[in-house]
Amino acid sequence: MKKAFVTKEQIEEIVKTYPTPFHIYDEKGIRENVKALKEAFAWNRGYKEFFAVKATPNPYLIQILREYGCGCDCSSLTELMVSSAMGVTGEDIMFSSNDTPAHEFAYAEKLGAIINLDDITHIDFLEKTIGYIPKTISCRFNPGGYFSVANSIMDNPGDAKYGFTTEQMFEGFRILKNKGAENFGIHAFLASNTVSNEYYPELARQLFELAVKLKEETGANITFINLSGGIGIPYKPDDVPNDIRIIGEGVRKAYEKILVPAGMGEVAIYTELGRYMMGPFGHLITQAIHEKHTHKEYIGVDACAVNLMRPAIYGAYHHITVLGKENEPCAYKYDVTGSLCENNDKFAIDRMLPKVEIGDYLAIHDTGAHGFAMGYNYNGKLKSAELLLKEDGSVQMIRRAETPKDYFATFDCLDIYNKLDFEA
Ligand SMILES: *Cc1c(COP(=O)(O)O)cnc(C)c1O
Questions:
Q1: What is the mean pLDDT of residues 14-24?
Q2: Strand 297-301 and strand 282-293: pairing?
Q3: Which numbered atom of ligand 1 lies nearest the CA of 54?
Q4: Nearest 5 degrees, angle CA 223-CA 229-CA 231?
Q5: Average pLDDT, stretch 202-219?
Q6: For residue 131, is it left (φ>0), alpha (ψ between -120 and 50) or beta?
């Protein structure tokens, strides 16, 4: 059974200061999880996790991970800016971007970030932009086809816009070496949200074999292999969670079988996990404000898809706990909806829940990654606050809620701005 990390009593206290809806994050869970990740890869001397900033771009949360030696995986100008402002620079930043604008390459280079190229044409593009090829450089690999483990398909890299083909990896390494690159990395992200202990070990096997060939054929000095993101979380109550120790062991076995005999036993393993680091440790807390009995039974809440887009765009399942009713039978079938003028604005469809009454608080689970971050402003809806539930039980606001002033800020060049009623 999935349990919320907050109780009804805690939320009733919190809403006296911070009205719903809001995202709340569990500091204790984040710390325990990152510790377990580090232990699972402790066998590799150079191991480092570069947290995928896009998943949860909040400096307070990233700072927690910093205490465990994590760097930042950035993919845009503003993600680089927030990392830099936190004092994360140099080789603590992995810049894994695609379709990259020139000024973003330039800023990444200025910060001394490791640049992970998405395409062979970006070699020239980068050289023209910054005037040279950095000594340390990484290339993103995409073998095409399907990614499968034990005959079951996990994802479809052949349909993904990212990365170099196999031939391009060899050609790219040769070109980069001729242009002065000295330390090489290999990166690949071939399946997303894998709830399987087999994904990383299988990916590692493929990348390690490629690394050995690349070294033999191009003479490149490969210093790291980046397994990127993709370790998933159990969104559904009957999903079996990944075991990070088994995953770490699986990668170690492949490392010892393939890299060590090839004289590559110094290669560092990097990861760029996002969802796995934060996903389970966030809830969207929202209050039931309407009930509607028409062709279906509806519960209307004060959050909407602006606060959590995944159900609307992917049909993703997010578990819901009606706080204070954890032990009541789930005997009522509801669509749980937000207020957008979009029929896909539903957090759950035909979901069995305890009887929901107006005023009840609902915890929508697993919003700690790709939750708040994906938010938008459709219907002029404002983004919520983010709160941190600290280990001592206290609550800190780590991002305030948007106000109409934030929403209209880009009108400040127009007459209309001064006519807006900000008292509304
Ligand atoms: C999104 C992304 C990640 C993180 O993915 P998760 O599924 O959150 O682990 C890592 N690396 C790159 C390049 C990404 O685009």
A1: 98
A2: antiparallel
A3: 1
A4: 120
A5: 98
A6: left
Per DSSP, the three-state class of 409 is helix
Cα of 161 to ligand 1 centre, how many Å? 14
Helix (H, G, I), strand (E, B) or coil at 123: helix
Mutation probe of ligand 1 site: the residue of 226, 273, 278, 281 with most atoms within 8 A of C-beta:
273
pLDDT at 172 over 90: yes
The whole-number average pLDDT for the span 17-36 is 98
pLDDT tens-place string over residues 304-323 = 999 999 999 999 999 999 99
- Atom in ligand 1 nearest the alpha carbon of residue 187: 13
CA–CA gap between residue 273 and residue 290 (Å, rounded): 38
Note the pTM of the prediction, 2 decimals. Answer: 0.97
pLDDT of residue 190: 96
Ligand 1 and 73: CB distance under 6 A: yes
Contacts of 328 (CB under 8 A, 6+ apart): 322, 354, 355
96 lines ligand 1 (CB under 6 A): yes
Outline where 19-88 has alpha helix (H). Answer: 27-40, 59-66, 77-85
As a whole number of angstroms, the distance between CA 54 and CA 74 comes to 7
Long-range contacts of 349-353 (CB under 8 A, 24+ apart): 351/320, 353/299, 353/320, 353/322
Q: Let me know how many helices (H) and strands (E) the chain has, helices first.
A: 12, 19
- pLDDT given at position 424: 86
Q: How far is CA 371 from the centre of its chain?
A: 9
